[in-house]
Amino acid sequence: MKDIFEKFLSNGEANENDTRILNAHKSFFTSEEGRIVLDQILHDMKFLQECKTEGDMALNNYAKKLLIRIFWDSKKEAVSGRRIINLVKRLIGAKKCL
What we know:
Elements: H1 16-29, H2 32-44, H3 54-71, E1 72-73, E2 78-79, H4 81-97
Antiparallel strand pairs: 1-2
């Protein structure tokens, strides 16, 4: 059975390059430096902000796609909800500190 993640890939079919890209996303964005970069990217993409324009909505939707790539669990064939919840808690906590 093919991995359900294929439906989230832009071309609809997983190939070796897609797997390498997915693994690179996970490796980088779960590192200490990657978390810092991810926090800024998600802020720039209006992830926890109100979307007032179609452009804001497009950025927000891409942020969600990025999170799916980072937090996809191929063993469970699902997104790790726990890890996304922890990320959102961290982001909300960071906003309170500003």
